Amino acid sequence: MRKFKKFVSTAIIAAMAGTLCLTGCGSNSSSESSTGSSKSEKQVTVAIVQPMSHTSLDQIRDTITSELGKDDNIKVVTDNANGDTAALSSIIENYKSEGVDIVVPIATSTAQTAKSVYDGEDTPIVFAAVSDPEAAGLTGEDCANITGVSNNIPADEIVKLIANFQPDYKKIGFLYTSSETNSVSTITAAKKYCDDNNIAYEESSISNVSELQTAVESLISKGVDALYTGNDNTIASAMATYTDVAYAKKVPIYCGADSMVADGGFATVGVNYVQLGKQVADMVEKIANGEKVSDIPYETISDYAKYVNMQAVKQFGGNFDKKAFEEFDVLVEEDGTSHFNK
């Protein structure tokens, strides 16, 4: 993946050495985890549940599955509600009946459903991609069995992202799904930042994908010259509609995740979902190896992604100062070549 001005390697390769110990009562060998705890002889079943399919959520699932797949002592099962709220509850209820050992709900709605289904139970719940765990009711005395990794993005970073490319912008358009706690939380924080700093904005919310085109058109008609959507699963699943409408009016779309840029958004200072998936997998490993959930506080994504889509720039006719790109990796080239997941 290339950088503007200079090429900088952003990959950090961590070498880990494992010690293999032969047991005295069998022919198989066992290994110690990175935490130093001996793995249980009992295979641990981990259930990963997502509310729907789109690039971000699939990337989280695939990363967690890949990381945990390196451990023969862990069995991973996955399921997808495909946007059906009732099915989401049924899936988690089924896993509870089957007695899975650890549940990994992806996204806020899934985590809240898991908490409800496992109310009063000790089964560990390790959420992935919950923007505001406190607002979602996933912290506190009744959540001793819950931890995970948040994908929260600081509000000031959102505005700085837009100002970096469009220093003369007049008004930001915030677009989100009203039923998604994670998305509402991100936009609420961004609006407060704008209010505190006298930054003009408009907002529009949708309840389903069918309202997306009208919502984008409404914001543009109000004179916004930049659009922003955070970690919003509904909108992320319909980026083609979003970009078609916005770019036809030459308005850039800034996003909360690299996957949304890969799917057509212009730029992000947001979540690297491979990194998030690895952090979640590491937590699951610790719990599988005997650590108590109550001793593992939830974390926030440790490394933010800075990506741009040059094909998008061509589509909306952007003309930016080259210096604005210096800190950003090119995720999609002007000809459409994608470096996502590569």
Describe the protein in words:
This protein is an alpha/beta fold. It is built from 11 helices and 15 strands. It has a 7-stranded mixed sheet, with helices on both faces. The protein has a 3-stranded parallel sheet with strand order 4-3-5, with helices on both faces. Strands 6-7-13 form a 3-stranded parallel sheet, sandwiched between helices. Helix 5 (181-196) links the parallel strand 8 (172-177) and strand 9 (201-206). The chain is elongated. Mean pLDDT is 88; it is low at 5-40.
Order of helices and strands: EEEHEHEHEEHEHEHEHHEHEHEEHE
Mean pLDDT: 88
How many separate domains?
A: 2
Helix content, binned percent? 25-40%
How many distinct beta strands?
Answer: 15
**Biggest sheet architecture:** 7 strands, mixed
CATH class of the largest domain: Alpha Beta
Q: From the coordinates shown, what is the CATH architecture of the largest domain?
A: 3-Layer(aba) Sandwich
Q: Kindly name the structural category.
A: alpha/beta
User: What's the end-to-end separation, in Å?
Assistant: 8 Å
Uncertain spans: 5-40
CATH topology description of the largest domain: Rossmann fold
Enumerate the strands of the largest sheet in spatial order, edge to edge or round the barrel: 9-8-10-11-12-14-15
CATH superfamily of the largest domain: Response regulator
| Percentage of residues in DSSP E strands | 15-25%
Number of helices: 11
| Cα radius of gyration in angstroms | 21 Å
Q: What is the general shape? A: elongated
